[in-house]
What we know:
The complex is a heterodimer of chains A (about 240) and B (about 290).
Chain A: E1 4-13, E2 16-26, E3 31-35, H1 42-50, E4 57-62, E5 65-66, H2 72-77, E6 80-83, H3 95-102, H4 109-122, H5 124-128, H6 139-151, E7 157-161, H7 169-184, E8 188-193, H8 196-202, E9 205-210, E10 213-219, H9 220-225, H10 227-234
Parallel strand pairs in A: 3-8, 3-9, 6-7, 7-8
Antiparallel strand pairs in A: 1-2, 1-4, 4-5, 9-10
Chain B: H1 2-33, H2 40-57, H3 62-85, H4 93-115, E1 130-133, E2 136-139, H5 140-162, H6 164-174, H7 176-182, H8 186-211, H9 219-233, H10 238-258, H11 267-278
Antiparallel strand pairs in B: 1-2
Helix pairs in contact in B: 1-5, 1-8, 1-9, 1-10, 2-3, 2-4, 2-8, 2-9, 3-8, 5-6, 5-8, 6-7, 6-8, 9-10, 9-11
Amino acid sequence: xxxxxxxxxxxxxxxxxxxxxxxxxxxxxxxxxxxxxxxxxxxxxxxxxxxxxxxxxxxxxxxxxxxxxxxxxxxxxxxxxxxxxxxxxxxxxxxxxxxxxxxxxxxxxxxxxxxxxxxxxxxxxxxxxxxxxxxxxxxxxxxxxxxxxxxxxxxxxxxxxxxxxxxxxxxxxxxxxxxxxxxxxxxxxxxxxxxxxxxxxxxxxxxxxxxxxxxxxxxxxxxxxxxxxxxxxxxx
Amino acid sequence: xxxxxxxxxxxxxxxxxxxxxxxxxxxxxxxxxxxxxxxxxxxxxxxxxxxxxxxxxxxxxxxxxxxxxxxxxxxxxxxxxxxxxxxxxxxxxxxxxxxxxxxxxxxxxxxxxxxxxxxxxxxxxxxxxxxxxxxxxxxxxxxxxxxxxxxxxxxxxxxxxxxxxxxxxxxxxxxxxxxxxxxxxxxxxxxxxxxxxxxxxxxxxxxxxxxxxxxxxxxxxxxxxxxxxxxxxxxxxxxxxxxxxxxxxxxxxxxxxxxxxxxxxxxxxxxxxxxxxxxxxxxxxxxxx
Lengths: 236, 289
């Protein structure tokens, strides 16, 4: 049974249909990517998975639990965590407060401390800046904080929405490294990217979303060789 | 002359502390739910009646009545949030303005129907204690009001700064979607915010009812002044709101003492107009978003 299984998902903003019958699966411990242009519906898809937006049709199943009508905080406590597009750290809270709030779904205080130590070990720059306001960090540091915050509850499935957007190549390398580490620790990673080159070199399996529909899917290695993908998304 | 000045200043600070309690609740709701709650003045009025009836019907002392009113209004406000405001959360501001204005009128008129229009007074029993220092005069009642409001304001600041719920409130105010994604139960935070806001309004209403009167229309001008305070102090800025509240208290009290008492309700609004003309970025500086 797949870890995450989405079937025939549709979503609307008012009367505008943004997602039209999207189906996908993710196996446990794999990296799955969803690529597509601006406005294809990638972020909407992510918000449906996190319960922030309710789909107008279809089903989402995560480890046997149905998500399409669940509340966001339930979904987080079931082990599905999202790092949203544009970082969205809380600017007038400290780095430490941002991380503590990321762990709000955890009951056990010692576990929270363990996760905090894990984060600071993984992101030494955040340990250094723990008393600083998140809004005063650089873009790259804010992205690290946003990822660290999403990892605080120790999710079984981590969703990353455009983690490479607007970052310097050296910071992107760091993001790639984190994604690999997290996967090696057994977490499934679901990556949404415009940077198709990065996404396809990292992922095991890939989906291409175009105007709300899955246009192509297959192993990432296969899609990398696909003419259409090369022309539209890789520019080669 | 100077004695009058200092006496009015002291009265102004006490008034300002009460305004701070009311305006902080309004500012919390504005920052966290992005709503303008014009019914906030009625929460203050109902809180005052709750304290009054606790004292006259249950015969409890002033401080116990204050606690009953705060707890009662916390519950009442959270219920109002759940049953009345919930459907319009996240909708444009005009929805909450119209809805809360209607609620305000309904609550004020229900109070008028059931409690009648005659002003009544909460007798705290502390008014007979009198302090005299340097020619200034302060009753035990006003002193306890001053102390109580300072405790409540400090308590609120501490709560928002250090508790998990307080931090969650700040997170929701700064980025609601990020808060949802982190697993904060946003609906619970909304109810808690309304509850705190209602409790603070009830405390203020009870104290004003002891200093002046309790009547069904007492919330009307107070809510407008509180909006002035929130605008002056900056939305979501606790310190700014406290300073603005004390400023408005002083302006009202000194203006009432030295210019004309009849126009005391006009001074805060004159100040607001002047501020819009000369310092449109607000008292505590520019936009920090």
